């Protein structure tokens, strides 16, 4: 029987778009997912998350269910357009109030809040007006949004995640076009991935300089990876399995923990894979306090 250490964090997780509903209530702005689901043929049965699990209105009931299950950690995402309806500028006080209440009620039940800043629901205005993650200036918008969250919630948060699974957003949102924002390209995923890394690093650097010393939190990002096994023991199959892992997990983990993209990506993608400047490499390398 596997024995986990006493400080192992057990919990559950959600994303704002998948559970909250209230898609246009209390000042929330539209996200790219609010628009994407309305395109005919994009979503099975034409379903939307305009109501979803109605967590926005049933938050206390959901927390009671988590407490009854014995959940000790809850990873949730904060809806950027609920906080900043236009992506930048005016802060929505109702949005701040909702997440502040969520955090307080979790703590009342001894459940550790573990917020994720971005789980794919980019404010629609930033996609329309600034090309979303294709624009390197998105890092400035991410920092402005993160600053609002750190300021209002950081006094009660021990762990932050900047982004959830950037691989999925880049490949399925900008490669295959089957997720928001619904673009198809061979090159865009790697530009988007690059801007994810630069934005993540900028947020982490900002948090460390302005907030970490007084809030004492830790910060990272959530990466995903489907494991690959070689079909046979042949060198070719072993190399293929390793390369697949590098294109999946190494794409984002290697720059953060090793300082640059995997050599296999450089070799196979050539100029399609952006390069870091020395200053960018310095900020990206080491921009995680832990690996969840």
Strand order of the largest sheet: 1-2-3-4-5
Strand content range: 5-15%
The overall pLDDT average reads 97
* Global shape: globular
The CATH topology is what? Answer: TIM Barrel
Spans where pLDDT lies below 50 across 5 or more residues? none
Features:
292 residues, alpha/beta, TIM Barrel, five-stranded parallel beta sheet, globular
Describe the structure.
The chain has helices at residues 16-19, 32-36, 55-69, 80-83, 93-108, 124-130, 138-153, 166-174, 188-210, 212-215, 235-257, 263-269, 278-284, and strands at residues 11-13, 73-77, 112-118, 159-164, 218-222. With 292 residues, it is of the alpha/beta class. It has one domain: Glycosidases (TIM Barrel). It has a five-stranded parallel beta sheet with strand order 1-2-3-4-5. The longest helix is centred in the C-terminal third of the chain and has 23 residues, at 188-210. The radius of gyration is 19 Å and the shape is globular. The protein starts with 10 loop residues before the first strand and ends in an 8-residue tail after the last helix. The model has no long low-confidence stretch (mean pLDDT 97).
Topology:
Blueprint lengths: L10 E3 L2 H4 L12 H5 L18 H15 L3 E5 L2 H4 L9 H16 L3 E7 L5 H7 L7 H16 L5 E6 L1 H9 L13 H23 L1 H4 L2 E5 L12 H23 L5 H7 L8 H7 L8
Parallel strand pairs: 1-2, 2-3, 3-4, 4-5
Concise overview:
By secondary structure, the protein is an alpha/beta fold. It has a single domain, classed as TIM Barrel (Alpha-Beta Barrel), CATH 3.20.20. The protein has 13 helices and five strands.
